[in-house]
Structure formats: structure tokens, C-alpha cells
Amino acid sequence: MLANLKQMAELVDVFSxxxxxxxxxxxxxxxxxxxQPPGVFYIVHGLVKAYDISRYNxxxxxxxxxxxxxxxxxxxLTGQERSITYQALAPTITLEITRQKFEQEITRHTxxxxxxxxxxxxMYRLHSERILNLExxxxxxxxxxxxxxxASRFGTRSNKGLVIEAPLRHQDIASSINATRETTSRxxxxxxxQGLIAKDGSYYILSSVSGLRNILK
Length: 217
Fold this sequence. Notes:
The chain is α+β, with helices and mostly antiparallel strands. The chain has helices at about 5-20, 75-80, 100-110, 115-135, 140-155, 170-175, 180-195, 210-215, and strands at about 20-25, 30, 40-45, 50-55, 60-65, 70, 85-90, 90-95, 155-160, 160-165, 195-200, 205. The protein is built from eight helices and twelve strands. The strands form three sheets. The chain has a four-stranded antiparallel beta sheet with strand order 1-8-3-6. It is globular and about 55 Å long.
């Protein structure tokens, strides 16, 4: 990462001084389908799912934003944004400022640019990994690759394994690995039966990271 703690604090301060605090329940829309972003959001706490609607009228998961991240990032930086929906995946608190105010503050407080660059690089990395993921021939390989990527971003250690602390629906996973929901469900069940993963509520647990990695060799 390029940003240090001082630079991250500078970015947070931009939103703390100028932002409007908003609270969302799980499932609440923050930016509705087809809606213009009302402003730039900093996540104080929670998770936000970004997705679009496919030509088959299905949700296509793009990215999950987490605490200390900003969305919609591309729109914030360039003013250009596709029709992306942003929805709270968990109880979420944000700070919202207008894009005009965001531009003014970033120009004045240049230390805040480094964390933004980190977030942009991370977004590029995640989208690149998604493209590479699609090079795997089998759904199981793509599924395993997806789970390992999510664990690197949201994983926390527990006595049961590596917990992906982001709720994932079968449809979200399926859209990310270019598979049907039915096939994805079947492959998830197979991995559970093999003892490689487990499920606790809406969270998946990687019980054997080494076993999952062996599938990709």
C-alpha cells in the first residue's frame, strides 16, 4: 500500500468535516438502479454491494466495498459511472459529501490522494483477478479461485478456519464465476462434503486453504 496512517487520516477527515452521516439497514438501497449518485460515500462501518443487472435480468456482482473505502470510486474521480446499484449487505454507516466538495477538498488536501490511489489499485487488482478467474476451465476451479480471492479481502482466522466475513448468496457467486446458480450450488455442496469449506449462517469458512489451492494446481 502507498498510503500511510497520516494520509489515510487526512482522507477520513475530509469526510468527517464535510460529510452527512447516514445509516442503512441490510438490504437498503444507497444508490438505486439507474439512479445518479447523490454524492461520494465513505464507509464508516458495514459492507456495500455494487452490482448491475444483466440482459437476463439477473444481478451481476461487481465488487463489495468495506469499511474505510469510498464509493462510487470511478464516478468520484472522473464523473463517469455506469448504471450501478449500491446496496447495503449489512447494517452500514456512511459519510456522504457532494462530488464537487470532494474534488475541492482533495485538491486542497493532497495527502488524501494516496489512499484513493490504493483503492483504485485494489479495484484494478480485483477486476484483473476476475478476468484471470474465467480462464479456468471448470466451474469448480473458478469457484475455488473466487473463494480464495474473497478470503484474501474479507477473511478472518477462527478455530474453524478462514471465515469470509461477507455474506455471499449463490447468485452473487455464480455471476462472478460465469456459472449458473444451480451448478454453483452443486459445486459448493461438493466442497462442503469434501470438508474443504463449511458454512456458518451466511458466511463461508475455508476449512482447508491448502486443499483448495491444490485444486488449482
